[in-house]
Each structure stands twice: as C-alpha cells, then as structure tokens.
Write a structure and sequence with these properties.
single chain; about 450 residues; alpha/beta; 2 domains; six-stranded mixed sheet; about 35% helix; disordered C terminus
Length: about 450
C-alpha cells in the first residue's frame, strides 16, 4: 500500500494514528480466522489483540485498499437431482402418493373389526389414484365422528378430505351406513344369544343446538334449546333401530309418529339391492349355534371368517361398475315391501309421547306403545277406599324402568364429539352420523366380547 495515501487516510482530524505493517498483518489474520465477521466485530477483535484504538470505518477502508471484498456466499448445489416428471395419466408423482404409515389412531378399525364389515363393502374401489383405500376412508369417517373435526382438518395419514367426503355422501344416498348398522345390530343380538329381530323397543328424543350452517331449525320451549330434535328407537340392548331428526319445535308425539312409521313401514333396500328373485332367508338360519350359545366358539377366529358373519348372506356387487350396489344383504321379503322389524310388538316411551300416537301405532302397525311415567309424573292425589290411606310418593332418585336403556344409548353416542351439536345442513346427514357412531360402538363390542348364553327378549 502507498505510504503517502495511507498516511493521508489515517491522519485525518479526529482519527487515530495510522496502522503499521504489523497491524495489517494482524488484521489479515483476524479476517482469515473470522471470514464472516463484520467490520465492527473485526475492530473489536483488533483492539483486543493490539491495544490500539481504531474505528470500524478505518478497518473497512484498509481492507478495501488491500484488495479484500465482502461478497455473498453461493448456495450449496442439490445433493440429488430432481425427480423426473411422472408419466401417470392423472399426473401424480411419487411425492403426491400416500406413504405407508405406522401411525394408528384410537378410532381406527382393528383387523377383526375390518373383517366383520369388509364383505359388506364389496364393489367399492379398493384403491384410489392417490393411494386411499376403502378401509382408510372408513377410518377417516370414524376419526371425524370421534373427534368432531371438520372435513379439511382430516390428518394427512388418511386419503384426501375430498375423497373421504365424496364417499361418505355417496354412501348416504345408497343407504350403506344405515344398512351396515342394521347388520351389525343383528350380529350383536346373535352374539348375546338373542333373536336377531327384537320384540320390544324404547323411544325417546334429544334436543341439540345447531350452528350457522343452516337447514331446518326451531326452538324447543321445554328444553330452551334452539336447534333440532333427534328421535331414536332402540332395542332392549340399547342398539339403534331407527333415527329421525326434526326441527326442535316439533312436538315429541308428532316426531314419534314419523319415527314409528319409518321404523315399522315397508322396507326399502339400498340402491341396487337384491332383485325379487333372491331367495328368502329364514331368520332361524342365522340363529346362534349350540356351540355359540355356550360360548365355546369365539366371535372372531382369525384368519377364517367369523362364525357369526358367515351366517349372514352376502350379495356381491357387480364387477366393473362404479355405481354398483353396496353388497349388503336384502331378503326377498324386504324387496317385496315387508315390514321392518317384523317381530316388534311393544314400544316404551316417556310421558311426552302420550296422546294420539298410541292409537296411531296400534291401529296402523299393530304395535302397543306404553307410556312409562316417572314417579313425579304420577298424580299427587289418588282414590282410596274406606279406612285406607294413600300410598306415599317415592322420594329421591329412582331408575325408570326401560327408559334408562335409551338414555344410556344417548350417553354412548355423546362420546362422539361430532354429535355434541348438529353441525350439518341436511337432516339425513345428521341421522347418518348417528348410525356411524353406533356402528363403531357395535364393532368394538363384536370384536372384543364373546358370545354369552341364550336369553329371551
């Protein structure tokens, strides 16, 4: 460096003495030790090492005159070349496909549970272009029912939310979920040693709030809830037979009529159900065997088909038709319009259903509807004979005969957070979530419980 210009630079007013050759050597060593350091940090390090006072402007100017430049560091080259474009006609690449995962959610179907329902879902595409399967789609629906999340919040472990939603709504139209609930309900009753068709049922309703989604809505003045009312009919085991969703301002007796007519009216199989030529399947053909009654045969025997499921006939869907039927069984009696629940003879309900629904149910369907009243529903005054005293009223909490069964069912379904409110715009979608929740509960029961002894009812 020219000593004259260097002296002129370093001896300006207010600046310290010029840097010597030894100082420049030390500065170069500091730059090589810390190549990414700024001028201010280099100045501090220079002052600590030499003991001379110096500004960062001087350090920067000296480095520039010595030929040093501060430049941007280049990026490292890619370790692997980009993947070539896929020749898939749907333009999917390997990065778009779902990778196998070992993550299992508590709501996922076990192998035993999937074996129970897989034959009834035949005819569905086993694998979609993006890697989703029918089992993964069902797991996604069960995850939504259990957690209450929205469609777009389905985890990436499942197929795309559009695929899951499209399948869910398509199966609603075809009656898959309701028919699956009916089949599982029969299996549960068989595993408990009961007749597949119930002879008695319990009726009740539940009012829930709705959201800003829209749809039918009303105000239940008794419960002080603005939303919808769910009417359900369950058997003596608490298994769901039928559900109807109405506006909350509909009276229980009117909503009960609709539910009873739907539950006891002519059967309508799913779209594409069995033709009239399908042979009738007697109920005794699917009754539990003597070995199952004593519990010596387990409900699930891997890897063979479960014995109870083997007794339920399967109607395979046609091959190569995306609009084919679900594969759920339908008897000839159902195809010809026979009554649902043919052996049902007794229905219990609470006092809210008292009225003309009792005569309506008896005259139209030949079923007795009995009102089971609570202790405080009984009149406080009563007729007594000469010398007799009135019977004292019961005090405190008391379990109500038969009605506690349907209340327990509401409690079971309440564990499904999707049912904490009515988030749907359409009532048929709301009803389907009830069938989904009950089907999942019955699957867990069937995959873990062993058949018990025979019982009546």
């Amino acid at each position: 460096m020219d000593s004259t210009s260097d002296t002129t630079l370093l001896r300006q007013p207010g600046r310290p003495a010029r840097l010597t050759d030894a100082d420049r050597t030390i500065l170069v060593e500091l730059v090589r030790e810390h190549p990414a350091a700024g001028a201010d940090n280099l100045t501090k390090a220079f002052v600590r090492r030499t003991g001379k006072s110096c500004s960062d402007t001087t350090i920067r100017a000296v480095l520039v005159k010595m030929g040093w430049r501060r430049m941007t560091r280049p990026e490292n080259p890619l370790s692997e070349p980009p993947a070539p474009a896929s020749k898939d006609p749907v333009r999917y690449t390997e990065h778009h496909r779902l990778e196998p995962t070992t993550v299992s959610y508590p709501s996922d179907l076990t192998d035993e549970e999937w074996t129970l329902i897989e034959p009834h879902l035949r005819g569905r595409n086993s694998k979609s272009p993006c890697g989703g399967t029918t089992r993964a789609t069902v797991n996604a629906v069960l995850y939504m029912a259990r957690t209450g999340c929205q469609w777009r919040f389905i985890p990436h472990d499942f197929p795309k939310w559009q695929t899951v939603a499209k399948t869910y709504y398509r199966w609603i139209i075809r009656g898959v979920w309701e028919k699956l609930n009916e089949t599982l309900r029969r299996l549960v009753r068989i595993s408990a040693g009961k007749d597949p068709e119930p002879t008695a049922a319990i009726l009740d309703s539940q009012s829930v709030k709705t959201t800003e989604k829209g749809g039918v809505c009303g105000y239940d003045a008794g419960k002080k809830i603005k939303g919808r009312k769910r009417h359900i009919l369950v058997d003596t085991m608490g298994m769901l037979l039928k559900v109807r969703v109405h506006s909350a301002d509909v009276q229980d007796r009117e909503g009960g009529k609709d539910l009873v007519d739907a539950a006891l009216g002519p059967a309508a199989g799913p779209v594409g159900s069995a033709s009239a030529g399908t042979p009738e399947i007697p109920l005794e053909n699917i009754a539990p065997t003597p070995q199952e009654r004593v519990g010596s045969t387990p409900l699930f025997v891997p890897p063979e088909k479960p014995p109870l499921l083997a007794q339920i006939p399967i109607i395979p869907a046609s091959n190569g038709n995306s609009e084919s039927r679900t594969g759920l069984q339908t008897t000839a009696a159902e195809s010809e319009g026979a009554r649902h629940l043919p052996k049902l003879a007794q229905i219990w309900a609470d006092g809210a259903y008292a009225g003309d629904i009792e005569d309506h149910t008896l005259k139209k369907h030949g079923v007795i509807l009995e009102i089971v009243r609570r202790s405080d529903d009984v009149q406080t005054k009563m007729w007594v004979g000469p010398g007799e005293t009135p019977t004292p009223q019961s005090q405190g909490f008391k379990v109500i005969r038969w009605r506690w069964i349907v209340e327990r069912t509401f409690g079971w379904l309440g564990r499904k957070r999707r049912l904490s409110k009515d988030y749907e715009q359409r009532t048929d979608v709301s009803e389907t979530w009830m069938y989904v929740g009950m089907s999942h509960l019955m699957l867990r029961h069937l995959s873990t419980a062993a058949p018990s002894g025979a019982s009546a009812g």
